[in-house]
Amino acid sequence: MLIPCAEGPTRRPRAERWPLDAVLVGVGALRVARTLYHPYRSPGGSVRPYELPLWCGVTAPGARKVLDRFHEAGLVDRFEPYRPDRAPSYRPVRDHPMRRPLTRLFREEGAWAARLLRERQGEPDTSLTRPGPGR
Q1: What is the pTM of this model?
Q2: Please, are residues 26 and 20 in contact by the beta-carbon 8 Å criterion?
Q3: What is the CA radius of gyration of the chain?
Q4: Residue 24 burial by CB count (10 A; 0-12/13-18/19+): exposed, middle or buried?
Q5: 3-class DSSP string for 26-94
Q6: How do residues 59-103 score in pLDDT, each as one tens digit?
Q7: pLDDT class of 135 with cuts at 50, 70, 90
Q8: Which residues, other chains included, contact 44 with Cβ-Cβ below 8 Å and sequence gap of 6+?
Q9: Which tens digits make up the pLDDT trace of 16-33?
């Protein structure tokens, strides 16, 4: 399969050259990254895996796996709890070279989504309407 990439169109990209390939795998990872790097989120704020299902719709075990991958890649710091019955917390590394680009990416995505929503506001939302009796 031909994949266009920086190495040329006929070669598969090598994982060690594209570190985000191993980190941003699947919708869950994208949702966790969006939550961590949301531009309106308090900078330096930490999250725990059991909080993420409320914010981005991933399961707590799935969030933990994603956060562990982010930690292995150096994108987030992990803070062990002071009590053994608590979950660790994770926080984006402030001086990581990808922090600003990821924050910018999700800011632009938010603006794009807002534009799409404004464009659709003139159209009736048929997904929420139910057929009347006898239909």
Answers
A1: 0.71
A2: no
A3: 19
A4: middle
A5: HHHHHHHHHHHCCCCCCCCCCECCCCHHHHHCCCHHHHHHHHHHHHHCCCEEEECCCCCCCCCEEEECC
A6: 999 999 999 999 999 999 999 988 888 888 999 998 999 989 998
A7: very low
A8: 91, 94
A9: 677 888 888 888 999 999
Backbone angles phi, psi at 77, to 5 degrees: -95, 145
Token couple for 129: 């309407």
What is the token pair recorded at 68? 């562990």
Three-state secondary structure call for residue 112:
helix
Dihedral angle sign, alpha carbons of residues 91, 95, 98, 99? positive
Residue the block writes with tokens 């949702």:
31
